[in-house]
Design a protein that fits this description.
Layout (H helix, E strand, L loop, with lengths): L1 E9 L5 H4 L10 H5 L8 H6 L5 E4 L11 H8 L4 E4 L4 H10 L3 E3 L1 H6 L5 E5 L4 E4 L5 E3 L5 H8 L3 H6 L4
């Protein structure tokens, strides 16, 4: 699977309240959550993000409380992948459970700027910065976890009877 889009760059320690403010935790509709995704971190994000765009962040992305609202809002906003130097462990698991592709790469984060056009090959772990021509390597998503993403998340994966 390949992800292609514009990079939206964020700093370290983006917590789940920054991804989706706590005042929306009573919302269960993914499309409504998407309307508020990252609104306090970058107001342009909510208005300008396009289907397939990619979040690029520093360390500890998704820290804070263990709510699934955060990866659900990101995925519903149309983000195809999140690249970070590291993810909070609970967010990491919730991302896969909800079918959001995430990948870790220090060098890619350092080599990508806001607005760059990038392409991510989740199967090989190759990240290409189409703006600069640079290529970066990350550990690919393991095949069994890629199946979960392809199926749309863990519940959908189980419903399909896959192993």
């Amino acid at each position: 699977m390949k992800c292609k889009g514009r990079a939206w760059k964020f700093g370290p320690n983006i917590n789940t309240d920054a991804i989706i403010p706590a005042r929306y935790l009573n919302v269960t509709d993914p499309e409504e959550l998407a309307q508020h995704c990252m609104e306090n971190e970058n107001p342009r994000f909510v208005k300008e993000v396009k289907e397939g765009d990619i979040i690029v962040a520093e360390t500890n992305f998704g820290c804070g409380s263990s709510r699934e609202h955060a990866p659900i809002a990101i995925k519903a906003k149309g983000i195809s992948c999140v690249i970070a130097k590291s993810f909070a462990r609970i967010f990491y698991r919730n991302a896969f459970n909800t079918g959001l592709a995430i990948i870790e790469s220090d060098e890619a984060v350092d080599g990508i700027r806001d607005g760059h056009e990038i392409e991510v090959d989740l199967l090989s772990g190759e990240i290409m910065n189409r703006t600069t021509g640079q290529s970066f390597k990350a550990n690919p998503i393991p095949p069994f976890m890629q199946k979960i993403i392809d199926d749309g998340g863990l519940m959908e994966h189980i419903a399909k009877g896959r192993s």
